[in-house]
Design goal:
By secondary structure, the chain is mainly alpha-helical. It is built from four helices and no strands.
């Protein structure tokens, strides 16, 4: 699985957790960014991946009210989301095949 596919999988997983927690405030913008990651130009993909990485900050998604997983599980999910999006961004930035 490529870095871009890994990032898409983690974004989908995060959106699922947010939706199961009835947190559309964060699910909707992540869903929009996911669309750009899936089908945008390389520039749009990089932009979306970077923005998702910013969302992983404790004062953004870290403050989201999530009930579908415990606090530690949510922190782990955000760390994984950030790391996979950063790797996909770096692959796209370096011009390698994602």
């Amino acid at each position: 699985m490529s870095e871009l596919e890994d990032a898409i999988k983690e974004i989908e997983s995060t959106i699922g957790i947010l939706r199961r927690s009835s947190n559309e405030r964060w699910a909707v913008p992540l869903d929009q960014l996911l669309a750009a990651v899936r089908s945008g130009t390389v520039f749009e993909q990089k932009q979306a991946l970077f923005k998702i990485g910013e969302f992983c900050h404790p004062k953004a998604l870290g403050d989201a009210r999530v009930t579908a997983v415990d606090f530690q599980g949510w922190g782990t999910q955000l760390d994984t989301l950030h790391d996979t999006c950063a790797r996909a961004f770096n692959v796209l930035e370096n011009g390698s095949k994602a």
